[in-house]
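thread: overnight batch results

M.L. [08:02]
morning all. the overnight job finished for the chain we discussed friday. pasting input first so we're all looking at the same thing
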Amino acid sequence: MIDETVEEIAEMQTHSSSVVAIKAARALLALGDREFPTVEEYERALERNSDALRRANPSHATLQTTQRELVSRVTESDAETVPAAQAVTEDVVAEVVDRVESAKRRAGERAAAFLEDGDTVFTYDYSSTVLEALTAAAEAGVSLSVRCAEARPRYLGRKMARTLSEFDGFDVTLVVDGAAGIFLDDCDRVMVGMDCIVEDTLYNRVGTYPVAATAADVGVPFVVVGAESKIVGGGFAFENEQRSVSEVIREPADGFAVENPAYDATPMRLVDTVVTDDAVHEY
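M.L. [08:03]
and the structure it wrote out:
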């Protein structure tokens, strides 16, 4: 299970950073089904597998922090037997999962307050926390028009559009990324998720920066939604990654190079509001 989760994270089969953190935490529970001669052997296995999970995507702040917390809390528990260490692992995983899930829910509920009946909202990529906000708005009877950008090359916006199309009172349109400048002028706000915010930079799915820049140019508020834990200090070094060329072009790239970065860096001066489970930050 752990190897499969590592591969899934590395291949970005799971898109939401909070969902990635939850799956990675739960993957470590597989060690509870194995036998270890000593507590030390169990802890080494826990550290080794946690390290593999973290290396699968170094850019996910929530993945990094939750995995480090899991390992440190288990190793510092001074469990005297392997079953006791495994029980501590189960307890810590349950606590971490609950905290991540509740943070996403609270951030979404807080962000829903920004959505008024009849608004037109522009979304980019597939953010489970933005989806929480839109779900809360729908459950409150708010009618919205939503413009979902495709988020090429993985077209994650299509998943958002399909999901939102099932909501009563929602008028959903899927638009190509390059048409953001055409549609943003008619929108009341942009709402996106975040991988993390490090000091004065928002890191998110590639393509976020041009949407933020266009929104600023036409005067549309740019709102970021995510867990407070994703706002990290300068000690965290964000690592971008290059995705497969096959996501961009199927035929051989003869005579030219292909660049396919997973994330981009948006200056926080282009962000108006960050809504988290703990607070609303205005910029």
